[in-house]
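User: ok so my PI wants both of these folded by tonight, can you help

Assistant: No problem, let's get them done. Here's the first:
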Amino acid sequence: MLGFRKHKVTSYPPEIVTNLKDLMRFEFLVQSGNLLPKHPIYSVLAGRHESKLRGRGLDFEEVRQYVAGDDIRNIDWRVTARTGETYSKVFNEEKERPTFIVADQSTGMFFGSQRFVKAVSAAHVAAISAFYTIKRGDRVGGIVFNEEGMDFMMPKRSKAQVQHFLQCVVNRNGILPQRKKIETNTKLLNSMLQKTQAAITHDYVVLVVSDFSNIDDETKQYLRNISQHNDVMLVHIYDQLDQALPDGKLVLSDGKKQISWRNNKRSWGKKYVSSFVEMQQHLRDEFSPYRIPIVFFNTEEAIEDQIMHHMGKILKK
């Protein structure tokens, strides 16, 4: 009787390596209407954004005093009769905004010290954004990439497209535990942004999900170029150890060299914390003039909980 050697298949929890079932569950959360607010605010993960154009569009926005040139069909006669002055209704016109998601699944994203690894948190952001876009009736596509290659999908309006996109995320994500060398993703991210810029035209929502480690001037220029005719949003995934290192003697390594680290030595710990805060502020300052919002999500909490918290703060403003 011939014997066959069985290959051991390593199974990882979904917080470490995601799977399609784990990502598809976000469809229910989005469809239930409990995850994201119904009010069409300009916010990250929104598949359709409010247009800056004013007209007789889809959504009523406000009532204001009549201005010469206003369409008389928009006069609010009830308010006019009550106040004795002429008031007009203002509408906010919506335009279709395909969503293009750039999802980083490179080796640098395979890190997490608490609950999730960055790559899984990024996958959750991509899934929520894709399902929300389809729910709003818009098209969704994007790029999923790592050092092994990329998957490119032009936006389509179908659940099958979302499932295919998420399967690509799962496939790229599943490669990460096999990688033994961590590489910086600067050139890789730049290459994906270049492909994005060449593929899309205008009026897109471009969502870039990464840890943005070691971005350079070329990265920033691509993002600025894309934002000229599109809404660009950045989702920065970070880990607790990116913010601060624990007290005690540590040995840190980049895979080639090692150093002995103590937070209390020459105020290294305080400087480490300050550098993270400064990095966040620098990114905000860098992209704010171009109306590119950046949201910071951590690997300790579930993405859906962080979204609810983030949206709650926006709605209170």
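One down. Here's the second:
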Amino acid sequence: MTVPKVFIDQNGLSEGSQVELHLLGKKMTVEAPTRPRYKLSDLMAEMPEGLPRIEGWDEMPSVGLENG
């Protein structure tokens, strides 16, 4: 099935995106499901004990562009 580019752009879709098809008699509609939006503060509030700590993390050498 070919989907109009304007529909793809308006809904932030890309190749492989999943959409919902709704059938009513001889009509079929396509709906792009809404994606949840998260706030960092809400996600952090759900963590039971704050940020998890990894033993030795601060002593690990840089492996990328962490310091650049």
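Helices lie at 5-10, 40-45. Residues 5-10 form the longest helix (6 residues). Good luck tonight!
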